[in-house]
Every structure is written in structure tokens, then in C-alpha cells.
Design a protein that fits this description.
4-stranded parallel sheet, 4 helices, Rossmann fold, alpha/beta, about 20% strand, 4 strands
Length: about 130
């Protein structure tokens, strides 16, 4: 019996726009490695990275995030992978909104660097 493959999309965000995109590329590489380390669990990269270079985590008005949410609603992937929860938002209520909306679309969120509990402490919930 084979496991069902789980399609993984990557989301990256960096508040200060980088000319060479190094911070964004490092995030993407880390997420790709995280996905690769879970291939035993039938994870595959869905060949889609959503990127917001130069976008603040204090705003929901981000093209990469909006496209991620649209594609999640269309069920183009099963998991959204990012380095840490602060990539989604720097505001607790926005973080919860995004996380809950993705879950309502059937998309699980995974973090390559940090678990949700420690991240919530960081943004003031715990």
C-alpha cells in the first residue's frame, strides 16, 4: 500500500527588499531541504514558491501571500512550508486568521525552523 503524496508549496517573505534576493533564496533552500527530509512521509515539492520580497509582516496586503491563499483555496497543494511563523505575519490576529483560513481549505502549515508553540510565545500569545 503506497502513501498518498502530499504536495508542498513554499512561502517566503523578507521585509527589506534584497537586490540579490539572498535572504529569500536562503529561506527557499531551507524549506526545500525540509520537504526533502520528509519524502519518507510522501512529501513532494509542488514546484511553486510564493514570495514577498520587501513586504512587511505587519500587513496582509502582499501579492505572494494573496496568491498562496488563492491557490490553497483551489487545493493546488496540501502543505504550506515556510521557515517560521513570522513569515506569515507579525500580528497575532493576522497569523491566526491566515493559519485558520489555510486549515479550512485543507492545507496544513509546516515550519522548517520553529514549532508553532515557541513562535506564538514570540508574538505574544503563550
Amino acid at each position: 500500500m503506497s502513501k498518498t503524496q502530499k504536495r508542498c508549496a513554499i512561502y517566503t517573505r523578507c521585509a527589506s527588499a534584497s537586490i540579490d534576493g539572498k535572504a529569500i533564496l536562503e529561506q527557499e533552500d531551507q524549506c526545500r531541504e525540509y520537504i526533502k527530509n520528509h519524502t519518507v512521509n510522501s512529501w513532494i515539492f509542488a514546484e511553486k514558491t510564493y514570495c514577498d520580497n520587501g513586504a512587511s509582516g505587519m500587513s496582509l496586503n502582499r501579492s505572494g501571500l494573496n496568491q498562496l491563499m488563492d491557490d490553497a483555496q483551489k487545493q493546488k497543494f496540501d502543505y504550506a512550508v515556510m521557515t517560521c511563523p513570522s513569515r506569515l505575519s507579525r500580528k497575532l490576529h493576522d497569523f491566526e486568521y491566515i493559519h485558520e483560513t489555510l486549515q479550512s481549505y485543507g492545507v496544513a502549515v509546516h515550519y522548517a525552523e520553529q514549532d508553532v508553540a515557541s513562535a506564538l510565545k514570540e508574538i505574544g500569545r503563550a
